[in-house]
């Protein structure tokens, strides 16, 4: 409250209506606490007179002061009324008041004021004058910007009034918003043009016209508290240009619609909210790929915290064990870095040579590498017989899978496919004659004449060109 001498009758009216005020609010909400603070202006020239204070000339006054927290929050209406009654007004010289000094301390001194964490926080600033802002402190030789920190002594007095400049509107807005404060400016009619602009600059702020003697303070507060309690608005903080956030609400029995606010609620009503978050693009700055969103009811410190990580650099494309740490694993396939080849990038190129073992490219220990029809690169055969060489486990598998095993194994194939397979095999392994197979289901294929290195074998036909 403005504690300048011009507000004397307003303070007296608050004393008379104090108990009724508290009881009226308690009819709206059962869990209610109230406190009281008073401000004048910086206690230095040119804001106040530095002449010795004469109590005889103004018995109801005290020496000028900047801001005092008279009473921390309490639920006892009698204590509140007595605190207002015992407080005294003071005089200053210039017309604007130091209300922003007091408002900043009331916002940031959470422990001293005894603000609760999980409650609706409401500050009513009552005045009949304007306010000093950042820069006005230079008139008194104060150039240090306001530090937005609590500076109350054991008696609740603001101690840095002659050290720190007045806070700016932006600083008041920042601190009020970060602490979920809801501000009400109760001002006289002539101050309406000035304080109406603050409503647009400070979140969760309203103003009301105060009667000259503040006789309507009860109706102002009760209507504002009802409006706050009966309205729920969801806010989202922390969003960037890279994402879009859509809010849907289901108010009472209404359908779910895209909106952020529900009105005309009563105690016990439930409101359902749905939040849709969509990433629209990947920021160029990698530091912006991780953001934190805070979704909360307006005026409450409770919030849903969402840590959002944008998948702008897919982990499946990072070097890893799958690709011997020298390739990127993309969609199940290794993309090797320059100088490396192989399914798992396990082979290193040295000029035109490849570091590899040939054993994996043999049918048997005594077989030729890739059956003599190709080169073994990284454990895979690059066959010479193909117009466009590709890799196979064994070059004998250009058209069919060949297993050299003991005579008498079975052959699963059709007759025509078996003939083709035998002819191909005869060509590859220099077989001079291959008998035909008549059964379309299962027959033995015996090869009467083969090269000296192959005594007997059976053919297992499968799909052609399998890698």
TrEMBL record:
Keywords: Cell adhesion, Cell membrane, Disulfide bond, Glycoprotein, Integrin, Membrane, Repeat, Signal, Transmembrane, Transmembrane helix
InterPro entries linked: EGF_integrin_2, Integrin_bsu, Integrin_bsu_VWA, Integrin_dom_sf, Integrin_I-EGF_CS, vWFA_dom_sf
Membrane topology according to the record: Single-pass type I membrane protein
Superkingdom per UniProt: Eukaryota
Gene Ontology molecular function terms on file: integrin binding
Signal peptide coordinates: none
Location(s) in or outside the cell: Cell membrane
Family as reported in the entry's similarity comment: Belongs to the integrin beta chain family.
Name of the featured protein: Integrin beta
């Amino acid at each position: 409250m403005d504690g300048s001498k011009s507000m004397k009758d307003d303070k007296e009216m608050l004393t008379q209506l104090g108990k009724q005020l508290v009881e009226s609010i308690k009819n709206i909400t059962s869990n209610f606490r109230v406190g009281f603070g008073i401000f004048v202006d910086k206690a230095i020239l040119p804001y106040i007179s530095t002449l010795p204070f004469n109590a005889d000339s103004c018995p109801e006054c005290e020496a000028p002061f900047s801001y005092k927290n008279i009473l921390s929050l309490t639920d006892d209406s009698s204590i509140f009324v007595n605190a207002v009654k015992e407080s005294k007004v003071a005089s200053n010289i210039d017309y604007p008041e130091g209300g922003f000094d007091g408002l900043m301390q009331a916002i940031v001194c959470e422990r001293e004021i005894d603000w609760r964490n999980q409650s609706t926080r409401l500050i009513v600033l009552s005045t009949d004058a304007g306010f000093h802002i950042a820069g006005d402190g230079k008139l008194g030789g104060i150039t240090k910007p306001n530090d937005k920190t609590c500076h109350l002594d054991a008696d609740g007095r603001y101690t840095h009034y002659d050290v720190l400049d007045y806070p700016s509107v932006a600083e008041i807005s920042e601190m009020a918003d970060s602490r979920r404060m809801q501000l009400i400016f109760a001002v006289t009619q002539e101050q309406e043009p000035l304080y109406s602009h603050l409503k647009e600059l400070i979140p969760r702020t309203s103003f009301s016209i105060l009667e000259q003697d503040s006789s309507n303070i009860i109706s102002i507060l009760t209507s504002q508290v009802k409006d706050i309690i009966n309205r729920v608005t969801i806010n989202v903080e922390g969003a960037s240009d890279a994402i879009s956030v859509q809010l849907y609400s289901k108010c009472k029995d209404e359908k779910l619609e895209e909106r952020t606010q529900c009105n005309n609620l009563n105690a016990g009503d439930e409101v359902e909210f749905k939040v849709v978050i969509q990433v629209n693009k990947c920021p160029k700055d990698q530091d912006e790929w991780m953001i934190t969103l805070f979704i909360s009811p307006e005026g409450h410190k409770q919030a849903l915290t969402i840590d959002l990580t944008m998948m702008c650099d897919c982990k499946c494309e990072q070097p890893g064990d799958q690709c011997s740490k020298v390739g990127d694993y993309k969609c199940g396939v290794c993309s090797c870095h320059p100088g490396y080849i192989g399914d798992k990038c396990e082979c290193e190129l040295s000029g035109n040579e490849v570091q590899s073992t040939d054993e994996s490219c043999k049918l048997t220990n005594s077989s030729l590498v890739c059956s003599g029809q190709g080169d073994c690169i990284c454990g895979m055969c690059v066959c010479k017989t193909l117009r466009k060489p590709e890799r196979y486990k064994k070059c004998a598998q250009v058209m069919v899978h060949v297993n050299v095993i003991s005579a008498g194994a079975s052959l699963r194939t059709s007759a025509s496919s078996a003939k083709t397979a035998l002819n191909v095999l005869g060509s590859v392994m220099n077989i001079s004659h291959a008998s035909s197979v008549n059964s379309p289901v299962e027959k033995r294929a015996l090869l009467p004449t083969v090269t000296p290195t192959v005594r007997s074998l059976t053919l297992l036909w499968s799909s052609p060109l399998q890698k």
